[in-house]
């Protein structure tokens, strides 16, 4: 099941917050993410990036991976 498709589930929120607590730095630009509200937590990939530009870059990178899964290995 795609848990990212259940944003209203309090378990998803809790999971996202604990992932942010473990990874308070942006995995795209390397900068510190000041607060959970500024973080875009990608639960399924366990990645945390800034909201906004870094999240847009992350989505673009994910789309790129989805298009060419054979390049992952
Ligand atoms: Zn960032």
Q: Span between N and C termini?
A: 24 Å
| Structure class | alpha+beta
How many β strands by DSSP? 2
The tally of helices reads: 2
Model regions low in confidence, pLDDT < 50 over at least 5 residues: none
Q: Based on CA inertia axes, which overall geometry fits?
A: globular
Strand content: 5-15%
Biggest beta sheet attributes? 2 strands, antiparallel
Rounded mean pLDDT score: 88
Q: What percent of the residues sit in helical stretches (DSSP H or I)?
A: 25-40%
How would you write the strand order of the largest sheet? 1-2
**Rg (C-alpha, Å):** 13 Å
Described by its quaternary structure, the protein is: single chain
Bound molecules: zinc ion
* Overall tally of structural domains: 1
Describe the 3D structure:
The chain has 73 residues and is α+β, with helices and mostly antiparallel strands. It has one domain. The protein is 38% helix and 11% strand. It contains two helices and two strands, in the order H-E-E-H. Strands 1-2 form a two-stranded antiparallel sheet. A hairpin with a 4-residue loop joins strand 1 (39-42) and strand 2. The protein starts with 9 loop residues before the first helix and ends in a 6-residue tail after the last helix. The mean pLDDT is 88. It binds zinc ion. Residues 26, 28-29, 31, 49-50, 54 line the site of zinc ion.
């Amino acid at each position: 099941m795609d848990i990212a498709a259940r944003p209203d589930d309090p378990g998803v929120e809790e999971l996202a917050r604990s992932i942010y607590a473990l990874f308070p730095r942006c995995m795209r630009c390397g900068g510190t993410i000041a607060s959970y509200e500024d973080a875009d937590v990608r639960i399924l990939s366990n990645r945390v990036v800034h909201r906004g530009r870094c999240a847009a870059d992350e989505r673009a990178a994910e789309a790129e991976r989805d298009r060419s899964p054979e390049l992952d290995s």
